[in-house]
Design brief:
Layout (H helix, E strand, L loop, with lengths): L4 E6 L2 H11 L48 E11 L8 E16 L2 E14 L2 E13 L17 E5 L3 H11 L9 H7 L9 H13 L10 E6 L9 E6 L4 E7 L5 E8 L1
Antiparallel strand pairs: 1-3, 2-5, 2-7, 3-4, 4-5, 6-8, 7-10, 8-9, 9-10
Helix pairs in contact: 1-2
């Protein structure tokens, strides 16, 4: 990706309603003029590339750094700054540009860490800025070292995502990464245990969990999310939130006690 790519979209309530009905039914139905929940901007500007523009794993080729020949691509995390709310009905411009690219060699072999910088603007003013972190890996790269965690906090939430959840999130975001719906590809080609829960979905579930206890009118200034281990279909995910005055912490823990993700929300 060279210069920034710009797209414009009206923030219609429909994608948010689809997400709410599947993952956050306790929230009120969205209406024009209401604020878009923080993080939900990721439900808009779906992946839109022709089938010829996809890598074999189903991810877009165009937003990968030039010359990357590593076959596996994984979402590693995201750092987001919220300047002010986006509202349903707003016309938003999204600008996407390539961020830093770092190549390393470790226990997993050759790795390339690549960032995508996304900026959302309303009337020419930035409202949300988010840096998406991807990692490209060799075929057969071993999984990361296991980190254990106790799912403890001030509030604890549990979810067992099944194939319907994964399908719906893929459909809302037009995500064709085959690890989320093609079991043969996930297990036989990428060596995963089963279908993979989307990293951006885990981020949203954790951010929703933090914000559900934030109190009226409390909105985040920043959110940092790091994925540390895969989460799989049909297995319970526990999200534990520790509330704080200046920041709140959340962890996502797999059914077998692995730390899968960390999130910090700064108020």
């Amino acid at each position: 990706m060279g210069a920034a790519v710009s797209r414009v979209q009206r923030i219609d309530p429909a994608p948010a309603q689809d997400y709410r009905g599947t993952f956050a039914p306790w929230l009120p139905e969205p209406s024009v003029g209401d604020p878009l929940p923080p993080g939900w901007e990721g439900l808009y500007f779906p992946f839109s590339v022709g089938i010829d523009g996809l890598r074999p794993d189903g991810t877009p080729q165009g937003d990968a750094p030039p010359g990357i020949d590593l076959p596996r691509r994984m979402y590693a995390g995201e750092d987001t700054v919220f300047h002010r709310p986006i509202r349903f009905g707003d016309t938003v411009e999204q600008r996407v540009r390539q961020g830093r690219v770092i190549e390393k060699t470790g226990r997993s072999g050759r790795l390339v860490f690549a960032d995508l910088e996304r900026e959302y603007l309303v009337d020419g003013e930035p409202v949300v800025e988010s840096t998406w972190h991807d990692v490209f890996l060799e075929e057969g790269a071993p999984p990361p070292p296991v980190q254990r965690a106790e799912p403890e906090g001030d509030r604890v939430y549990r979810l067992i995502p099944d194939s319907r959840h994964l399908f719906r999130f893929s459909a809302i975001t037009f995500n064709t990464h085959r690890v989320h719906y093609d079991r043969y590809w996930a297990q036989r080609v990428e060596g995963l245990q089963d279908l993979l829960v989307h990293g951006p979905l885990t981020r949203l579930l954790m951010l929703d969990a933090v914000l559900s206890g934030g109190g009226p009118g409390r909105t985040p200034a920043r959110c940092s999310f790091t994925a540390t281990a895969p989460l799989f279909v049909d297995r319970e995910i526990t999200v534990a939130v520790t509330d704080g005055t200046d920041e709140s912490q959340a962890v996502a823990v797999s059914e077998d006690g692995r730390l899968a993700a960390r999130a910090t929300v700064h108020w």
